[in-house]
Amino acid sequence: MTFAKLRYRGTLVLAFIAALGAASIAHAQATWKPDRQVTLVVPYSPGGGTDAQSRAVARELQRFWGQTVIVDNTAGADGLIGTRKVIESKPDGYTLLVQLNSLTLLKHLPTFKGTDPVAQLVPVSAFAALPVVVVANAKLPIKTVAELTSYCKANPCSFGTTENVARLQAQMYKAETGIDNLVVVNYKGGGQLITDLVANHVNVAIMGITAALPHYKSGALRVLASAGKKRSPVMPEVPSALEAGMPGMDEPIWYGVFAPKDTPANIVQGIAAAVREAVKGDEVKKTFATLGSDAIGNSPAEFATMVKEEGDRMGALVKRFPIE
């Protein structure tokens, strides 16, 4: 055998070994699993759509990992308290955060001071997208967004929200319709907002379908539009925001898992793989179908792109419609 042939065979062997090594690394990244309890921090009050989806995913992760996964509702400061709790945690995969696209607005809040929370987190995987709805007290003499606009121009009105994207959307609606006397009220959680809305202490609100649905069915609330370019399968009789004339609500809310900055890549990939499996679970599918959510379960790179694009979009909007 000639030297050239030996060298060629040696090159093939080295390439094969390298390929095996890369495959082993990829396999290790995809199969990282915790060996003790994992905490999933939800920075909002229990009982809403974020909480319901997070708990369904947590139960499926627990089954997949064979380890306890607890949901820790640490609400306050527009989601910042729970978010900082995760940022300050050890980057080892055992303390994770559930956040929605309102995370990208935290740095734009008038009261915010410090480093942008997005820069201190690692996007792991988005697990769901859920449309929000525009809801009014059923006692108001309105049935459409156009009628709401006319009513609020002639009467004092208050607009309730529970998170920053809804808060921005309410400010957009106020500015674009020219309703100067519309008061935007930001609530800490959906429970109190629902209570006040049903009692007509606040007239209209933006909230998740989850919170609105039982009161819509009972007749206490009227749903005027659902976010997005198409109607929700949960409420097919309700026009989309695009149909109703609210283009600022053409995108649903996404929900995803984040880890603290500097979490090793193999851990991030392992958690993302588990989330992808979790959204395929029967209980998650059932919960998401009830809520009208669409399952996602994407890769860390894909989720990072979503976060970046949403940050750019929200940054441009908040310049036009400052959050008060």
Protein traits:
324 residues; alpha/beta; D-Maltodextrin-Binding Protein, domain 2; 2 domains; 6-stranded mixed sheet; 5-stranded mixed sheet; 11 helices; 11 strands; globular; disordered N terminus
Average of pLDDT: 87
The rounded distance between the terminal residues' Cα atoms is: 80 Å
Q: Report the CATH C-level class of the largest domain.
A: Alpha Beta
User: From the 3D coordinates, which CATH architecture of the largest domain would you assign?
Assistant: 3-Layer(aba) Sandwich
Looking at this structure, what is the CATH superfamily of the largest domain? Answer: Bordetella uptake gene, domain 1
Shape: globular
Description:
- With 324 residues, the protein is α/β, with parallel strands linked by helices.
- It folds into two domains: 38-129 and 252-320, D-Maltodextrin-Binding Protein, domain 2; 132-249, D-Maltodextrin-Binding Protein, domain 2 (3-Layer(aba) Sandwich), CATH 3.40.190.
- Helices cover 45% and strands 19% of the residues.
- It has eleven helices and eleven strands.
- Strands 2-1-3-10-4-11 form a six-stranded mixed sheet, sandwiched between helices.
- Strand 6 (157-161), helix 5 and strand 7 (182-186) form a beta-alpha-beta unit.
- Helix 2 (49-65) packs antiparallel against helix 10 (282-291).
- The longest helix has 28 residues, at 3-30.
- Residues 3-8 and 10-30 have low confidence and may be disordered.
